[in-house]
Write the structure tokens for this entry.
Amino acid sequence: MGERLKGKVALVSGGATGVGGAASTLFAAEGARVAVLDINAAAAEATALAIREAGGDAMAVVADVSQALPVERAVAAVLARWGSIDVLFNHAGSIVVKPFLETTEDEWDRLMAVNVKSMFLVTRAVLPAMLAQRKGAIVCTSSISAVAGTPMEVLYDTTKGACHMFARAIAVEYRDRGIRCNAVCPGFVRTPHGLREVDALQKLGVDVSDAALAVAQGRICEPEEVAAAALFLASDEASFVNGTHLFVDNGFTAV
Ligand SMILES: NC(=O)c1ccc[n+]([C@@H]2O[C@H](COP(=O)([O-])OP(=O)(O)OC[C@H]3O[C@@H](n4cnc5c(N)ncnc54)[C@H](O)[C@@H]3O)[C@@H](O)[C@H]2O)c1
């Protein structure tokens, strides 16, 4: 067990599986009390239980991050239990992979809600408690897709461009009141989301084979590697890092 988040309360949206699950586990191992916020109740409970069994402290809170009332209730439950939220990892998100002209209006509205409106709703619910203590660290999950387009992902890329700018704009508005807000921008990661994306792209003729991924980013990224970058941004080690985009892509976007 480390101490990089000792004494802090962390809320991880999408914290049940994948990168969010790895972050919940890592943040707890570094001393945080972790609220695992997810739409998948069973997976959130399982992640929280595993943390407690490993000697950490965690609670599961169930909400669809695109819905205001459930988000407000979930955040209120965490504040009622632990009194503060020091770290927010805005990670929950999903993807639609299909030709642009086949994208429906419902898909557009739903993904914008799950990936972008969610950052507005969860941050809006958490920020007052951070401002009251004049300290808080927010990490938002952007993506290489915020700056590098992939065919069949116009909608997804658009949402991630918005997440990218959300993190920067929050930082600028609130830095004078002790708030830091940064983004992690992963390449392709071995998670249910990432593997679903690779499979869907392959079926639509976009080459994301192991060989293509090896050229673009060396290999597939592991969830723990993104969680480690988020941990740095969430911790006091990043005390003067604000409004930045930390790419976790082994040079994908550097080429
Ligand atoms: N895997 C990748 O290759 C990759 C790369 C870049 C960015 N990302 C970002 O990571 C996130 C996806 O997470 P992951 O890759 O760890 O995969 P994942 O599918 O394992 O995790 C996503 C988590 O979010 C939860 N979730 C989904 N919709 C939700 C909702 N409406 N309300 C609450 N929780 C919800 C899921 O239940 C799941 O636990 C997205 O924001 C995505 O843009 C993923």
Summary: Helices lie at 18-29, 41-53, 68-82, 105-132, 154-174, 192-203, 210-217, 223-234.
